[in-house]
Amino acid sequence: MSKNSELQARRDAAIARGISNQLPLFVARAENAELWDVEGRRYIDFAGGIAVLNTGHMHPRVKAAVAAQLEAFSHTCFMVTPYAVAVELAEKLNRLMPGSGAKKSIFVTTGAEAVENSVKIARAHTGRSAVIAFGGGFHGRTFMAMALTGKVAPYKAGFGPMPADVYHAPFPIPYHGVSVQQSLEALERIFKYEVEPARVAAIIVEPVQGEGGFYVAPPEFLQSLRKLCDQHGIVLVVDEIQSGFARTGRMFAVEHAGIEPDLMTLAKSLAGGFPLAAVVGKASIMDAPGPGGLGGTYAGSPIACAAGLAVLEVIEAEGLCARATAIGMSMTAALRALQKEIPAIGEIRGLGAMIAIELVRDGDPHSPDADLTKALVKRAAEKGLVILSCGLYGNVIRFLVPLTASDEIIREGLEIVAESLRELTGTVTRKAAHG
Ligand SMILES: Cc1ncc(COP(=O)(O)O)c(C=O)c1O
């Protein structure tokens, strides 16, 4: 039995099946865009710990900041005896959030917790209860985040009842025949059939749906949501947990639409692999909950905050926003060339370096090919590349390569995607037969 299989068997016996793992690949060490398993095999990492590693594995600056913090102290609880590193990170995030007014932040530990807190803050500010989210959206696995998530299996099935007063509108996805107009009309229908706008505390939206399949919200859609929220006094929460921190070519994806959110939820690449999440927003809204209403024992861990400060320095010093744009352009060009050869690639889309391919049967957007997608993840891993699937129908491959990866590594990874797809779709055989 190989070391990986042995560990997988132990994992299966010791850890509940509710937490699944995509690949039976147990990691021994990792550096920038590469990792090595317990058997010494090297892999290119196009998954980035699900969008956590925009600055790569073990960035030397992040490592140094964490090591220095560890020399001082690792925990006191910010709610008992606070520390400067969290204040400094909050000041920086407040400055980075789009919009010129005063901003404030809170720190928590996970993305789901940031989402939960954004709803608490919006409810405290408005005195209203309802929240609107979008089909296919993903906001986390805790109760309110799960209710807001727009996908039943596997996230909600069997876990009900969900918290009340949550409504979903369709997300605009032209590839699946849903226009911006239709999506906005559906929102109006919610106001007509389900809940009056004067009872809606918040609308929460991902500027690029992550888990849902890397569908980019058209700028005019986000602009319309901004207007709608202004018109009805609704808090606009932009969930940047997956799309933030330079991934899309701007610090936050919402900047592409030129609107100012009321609140933003942040996590993942915020602290380069250390558990940290935040809600950043307009000070007048953020201050609505009273003292003690928000917080958590580990909220704003000093180690994670030190990592967060280093991540922000790296993004600036290494020009990672521009690098994301460049990676996005070169990867898209390579994938477009591949699409000409492989009709199973139905669509290539994304924003900056948040790129995905959607795999379909016979070029039909309505025939998702989840089997091919699963097989591609497996075949790519056999060839030394870690990629992630996503999408409402499990037929999307998302690429979240660290923005610090070299061009050579990215080319090597894409070549594995191409080879694997050729093999799985029989393109190799056809080519050979013709050639
Ligand atoms: C957009 C978005 N929101 C919220 C979450 C939940 O974050 P966490 O898994 O840290 O709770 C995720 C995680 O994938 C996400 O992509």
Describe this structure in words.
It is a single chain. The strands form 3 sheets. A 7-stranded mixed beta sheet has the order 4-10-9-8-7-5-6, sandwiched between helices. A 4-stranded mixed beta sheet has the order 1-2-3-13. The chain has 435 residues and is of the alpha/beta class. Helix content is 40%, strand content 16%. Helix 3 packs antiparallel against helix 10 (302-317). The two termini are 41 Å apart. The chain has 14 helices and 15 strands. The chain is globular. The site of pyridoxal-5'-phosphate has 15 residues, from helix 5.
Biggest sheet features: 7 strands, mixed
Q: Cα-atom Rg, whole angstroms?
A: 22 Å
CA-based shape: globular
> What is the ordering of alpha helices and beta strands?
HEEEHHHEHEHEHEHEEEHHHEEHEEEHH
Uncertain regions: pLDDT < 50 for 5+ in a row?
429-435
Q: Number of DSSP strands?
A: 15
Averaging pLDDT over every residue, what do you get? 96
Query: Cα distance, first to last residue?
Result: 41 Å
SS-based structural class?
A: alpha/beta
* Sheet with most strands: strand arrangement: 4-10-9-8-7-5-6
Helix content: 40-55%
* Total count of helical runs of at least 4 residues: 14
Q: β content, as a range?
A: 15-25%
Q: Which small-molecule ligands are present, each listed once?
A: pyridoxal-5'-phosphate
Task: Write out key terms for the chains shown.
single chain; about 425 residues; alpha/beta; seven-stranded mixed sheet; 15 strands; about 40% helix; binds pyridoxal-5'-phosphate
